[in-house]
Amino acid sequence: MPYHADWARLTLALAAVIVVAYLVAQAAGRLARRALLSAMQHDGPLTSLASAVHHPIRIIRFLVFTATVAALVTPALELAGVQTNVGMTSHTLVEWLLGSGLRILVITILSYALLRIIGESVRRLEAEMGQATSADMAERLKRARTVSRLVQNALTVLVVSIASLMVLHELRVDIMPILTGAGIVGLAVGFGAQTLVKDLIAGFFLTLENQVRVGDVATINGVGGLVEEINLRTIVLRDGDGTVHIFPNGAIDRLANRTKDFSYAVVDVGVAYTEDPDRIIALLRELGTALKADPALGPTMLEPVEVLGIEAFEEARMVVRARIKTLPLRQWDVARELRRRIIHAFDERGITMPIRPAALPPK
Fold it and tell me: Which residues pair with 307 in a beta bridge?
C-alpha cells in the first residue's frame, strides 16, 4: 500500500523546527555577543567593536541553527506521521531533554548568572577604586579600569571554559584530549614564560596597590625620573637627561615614589659659626611665612615652614635645615623660591654663607 504523507502536518512540523532552531540560534548569538563584548578590551566606539565580532557571531548562529535542525527534524517528521530510521526519535529526544538537556540548561543558566555576578562585582570594584578628588580622578579611573578588565577577563575565560567542557561532556564529546592538550600547553607556558608571568603578576599588584602613577617622580632600581607609562608588563621612566628607561615589573627590586600624596621641599642652609643659630631659625620661619602668603606658590604649600634646626657641623659652616610640606611635584618650585629669598635676606642682613670646602685631593 503506497504511503501518502500529510503535507500540511509535514509542512507545519518543518516550519516549527525552523522557528525553534532560529530562536535557539538567536539566543546563542546574543549570549556569545555579550561574552565577547565583555571579554574584549576596547576604548573606542562600541559600534566598531560590534562590527569586529559580527562574523564570529554569524558563524555561531549558523552552527547552532544547523545542530538544532539536525536534532529536531527526525522527531518532527515522526510527529507528522513520517517514519524514518535516521536521526533521533521523539522518545530518544525526550529522554535526552530530561537528562543531558536539562543539565546543559542548568549549566548555561548558572554560568550566565555567575558572569553577571562577576560583572557587577567588577563594576563595584571599579567604582571604589575610582573614588578620588578631581586632581587625580583620571589616573585613578584608568587604574581602576585596567584592574577591573583584567579581573573580569580572567574570570570570564575561566567560567566559560569550565562551562564549555561540561556541556561538551553532556553532548557525549570526549574531552580528555582537550584536557590533555590544555595541560601540555600550560606546562609549556609555565616553563617557557616564567618571566612573562612574573612581570604580569607584579604589574597587576603594582596597579592594584597604586604604588606609583603616571606623572609621579620615582626612583626605580636606583634610576630616578618621571613615570610616563605603567603597563601590566613594564613601567616606563624618563630621567632628567631625557633618556627613557623601561623596567619589567618583575625585575623591580626597589621603588621609591617621591610624589606619593604629598612631598617635602627640603632646604639646607649653610651659615658661618659666628652667626647666631636662633637668629637664622627665626629668619627662616619669617621667610616661610612670607612664602606661604605668595599667591603663586602659597596654595601649593600644605603646611607652614618647619625649621628642624641645626642638621650638621661641617668644616667651615653649620647647616640649618628647613622643610615645607607641598603638593606632589611642587616641592622643587617651592624650594627654589625659598632659596632665592634666603639669598636676598642674608645679603640685606649681612649674614655670611661660607662655601662648602672642596674635597681634599687623595694622598
Answer: 322
Three-state secondary structure call for residue 223: strand
Q: Alpha-carbon distance 93 to 99, whole Å? A: 10
Round to whole Å and give the CA distance between 22 and 53: 19
- Dihedral of CA atoms 126, 128, 132, 134 in degrees, nearest 10, equals 50
Q: Give me the residues paired with residue 225 across strands.
A: 218
How confident is the prediction along the chain (363 residues), in pLDDT tens digits per residue? Answer: 344 456 777 788 788 878 888 888 888 888 777 766 665 554 444 455 555 667 777 888 888 888 777 777 777 777 666 666 655 555 666 666 667 777 877 888 888 888 888 878 777 766 665 555 444 555 566 666 666 777 777 788 788 888 888 888 887 778 888 888 878 877 777 776 778 778 888 888 887 777 888 888 899 998 999 988 887 788 999 998 889 999 998 889 889 988 888 889 999 999 999 899 999 999 999 999 999 999 999 999 999 999 999 999 988 899 999 999 998 888 999 999 999 999 999 999 988 888 655 444 444
Q: Describe the strand order of the beta sheet including 223-230 as a list of residue ranges.
A: 244-248, 234-238, 223-230, 217-220, 255-257
Phi, psi of 346 (to 5 degrees): -65, -35
For the record, the C-alpha cell of 55 comes out as 562574523
Confirm if 156 and 115 have CB atoms less than 8 A apart. Answer: yes
Q: Which amino acid is at 160?
A: V
Cell 637664622 sits on residue: 280
CB-based burial label for 199 (10 Å; 0-12, 13-18, 19+): buried
Residue 320 CA to residue 206 CA, distance in Å, equals 38
Dist. CA 266–CA 149, nearest whole Å = 41
Calpha distance 174→249 (Å, rounded):
41
- Residue 77: phi and psi, rounded to 5, are -65, -40
Q: What is the DSSP letter of 250?
A: G
Question: How many helices (H) and strands (E) are present in the chain, helices listed first?
Answer: 10, 8
- Residue 218's SS3 state is strand
